[in-house]
Write a structure and sequence with these properties.
Number of strands of chain A: 9
Largest interface: A-B, 45 and 43 residues
Oligomer: homotrimer
Structural class of chain A: alpha+beta
Helix content of chain A: 10-25%
């Protein structure tokens, strides 16, 4: 442990982000989140990000080589294949149940630390919205900052 | 981003929920969580839910069609089969190690946003306790609300 | 629900932990986290732990029988094998992409409840840093306590 600091904690900020996805794939949202933190004026604390959907995910992963996301997509597609005849839930098509499985195996919500007025992400960490449905969707995120 | 709001943050509420599970399966706890938020009087903030066990999970998933949970159970049972001879840890039976694997692949704790005095879950989002052991268990959750 | 308590919330504490890993495997950090909570003086609230890397994980799992971690390692190694020819991302060797997959299937950040000045972990819950790379790495955690 290299540093401990205690101070009064008196602010919260909330916001909503709406994102239009073009279908299955990744959209980086690190920039939007950093901007929200900047606007809040909070220097130290946490930023909570919540996705109000069960067929997409929030993801923290490597932000430099697009092949990482390509491999993640290939991996999860093989693990929970579209159109698997084993699924009972297929109301909305072959990508319906796989989207729920992908959501459960990854994250619907994440909390990120704020330090010096910015998200303290590692150099290689990006935050992504991972759309699991093949068709375009409108996705809504609820953001909450708590800090000082 | 459509809305940003800053205000003083001065309240926390805590609670404990004990749940008796009848064995492997899902129990929705969204109602209990909403009631706790209501009682706390907090209008804006977050509600943290923590499961004090390593052989059950907390889950956010689709709340309308029970086939989604049936497919999730089938999927994870196939991924981490009971009684797999590869497991070294089998003290408490064939469902012992699979329960720990299921716990690690899903969640032990979740944070949910509070807006307008209620959890801001999406329309199709339900919060579930997912029991992974085949026999009945007593499960304990620690709830913490931070907000104003 | 057995207990609800509301009080003013005025403190935050932050810290950074640096951990040297000897390569793939598990290191328990529950003791370090408990010590940070003790030093903060916070009695009720939450402790957020954030890993600034995408090729290692934070893990809550059974802390008594080392065979549980051995089985977890075997399970995930079989699910995302090193050197799989399907991976496009292999800049840093055969364990590079599997490390990112393992990170995505588990957790990069966790929030833990504080009660009575200690983390309210279950009896059998330990918190671990799970190194996914085969060679030694330096890992950094950002800790944030919010409570009173």
């Amino acid at each position: 442990m290299v540093e401990t600091k205690t101070e009064s904690l008196v602010n919260s900020s909330i916001s909503t982000i709406e994102i239009s996805t073009p279908g299955r794939g990744f959209q980086e949202i690190s920039g939007e989140l950093q901007e929200f933190v900047r606007q809040s004026g909070v220097k130290i604390g946490v930023c909570h990000v919540f996705l109000r959907h069960t067929s997409a995910s929030l993801l923290i992963t490597e932000n430099a080589d697009p092949d990482v996301r390509r491999d993640l997509e290939n991996f999860i597609s093989a693990l929970a294949p579209d159109g698997d005849p084993a699924y009972f839930h297929r109301m909305e098509g072959p990508d319906d149940m796989p989207a729920h499985i992908r959501s459960v195996l990854t994250c619907s919500e994440i909390t990120l630390p704020i330090r010096g007025g910015r998200l303290a992400l590692g150099t290689w960490q990006g935050v992504y919205l991972w759309e699991h449905r093949t068709r375009p969707h409108q996705r809504r995120l609820e953001l909450t900052i708590i800090g000082s």
